[in-house]
Amino acid sequence: MRKLLVATKNEGKAKEIKQLIGSYFDDVVTLNDFDSSINIIEDGRTFEENALKKAKMIYTLFRQPTLADDSGLEVDALGGRPGVMSARYAGENATDEDRIKKLLDELKDVPEEKRCAQFVCVLIFIDQQGRIYQTKGICRGKIAFEPRGENGFGYDPVFVPDGFDRTFAELDSQIKNQISHRAKAFENLKKILGEIYNEGTCN
Ligand SMILES: O=P(O)(O)OP(=O)(O)OP(=O)(O)OC[C@H]1O[C@@H](n2cnc3c(O)ncnc32)[C@H](O)[C@@H]1O
Ligand SMILES: [Mg+2]
């Protein structure tokens, strides 16, 4: 029985991770499933630093295969903000709605052609022996003028991926899971997991 600990408390993210991880693990559990009292302060300057911090903290406590995802939205017209601050962009106790409202306010005078943005996802996987692997995915798109759709989580209602005219929250989760920043990071992670678990014999 092979178990994966996912160092996240974000339910929307956790749901996608469970859909994207494939069949390498018999059981996939998140912090909300086993210990939601663990509090990790994300004070890194980059997605890589924060993902590493989350993964190391959980691996050190449990010594089991661990995955962390640090992600966020970089808006060109805001010089890449909110970026690593995406979760805390509107304050510590703000909701997804608060963050979206703040973003649309900041962009209210920015015309359609200047509303380019990208979602970024960095995954850190630590295997049973403590070896560390990192992958990254980027999905480019544009920020809409108002929130649309009910699917997904976070900034999905205002993000229109390139090649589509609907937001991530209007698109089917299957489509998001084919083209998203997280999907791209998982494509590479699954190659690594394939090498670790299919070709190795003593993991
Ligand atoms: O740290 P954990 O516990 O995993 O959960 P979190 O929500 O704090 O996650 P991050 O620190 O990685 O911050 C990511 C922020 O970017 C948002 N975000 C990340 N991926 C997203 C996606 O696919 N769709 C919409 N918003 C996303 C998310 O809602 C957060 O506000
Ligand atoms: Mg976080």
Key words describing this protein structure:
Maf protein; globular; binds inosine 5'-triphosphate; binds magnesium ion; ITP diphosphatase activity; 6 helices; ribonucleoside triphosphate phosphatase activity; single chain; hydrolase; 6-stranded mixed beta sheet; 6 strands; magnesium; 203 residues; alpha/beta
Describe the structure in your own words.
The protein is of the alpha/beta class. It has a single domain (3-199), classed as Maf protein, CATH 3.90.950.10. Helix content is 33%, strand content 22%. It has 6 helices and 6 strands. A hairpin with a 5-residue loop joins strand 4 and strand 5. The longest helix is centred in the last third of the chain and has 19 residues, at 181-199. The mean pLDDT is 96. Magnesium ion (MG) binds at residues 42, 87. The site of inosine 5'-triphosphate has 21 residues, from strand 3. The active site is at residue 70. One of its GO terms (biological process) is nucleotide metabolic process. It catalyses: ITP + H2O = IMP + diphosphate + H(+); XTP + H2O = XMP + diphosphate + H(+); dITP + H2O = dIMP + diphosphate + H(+).
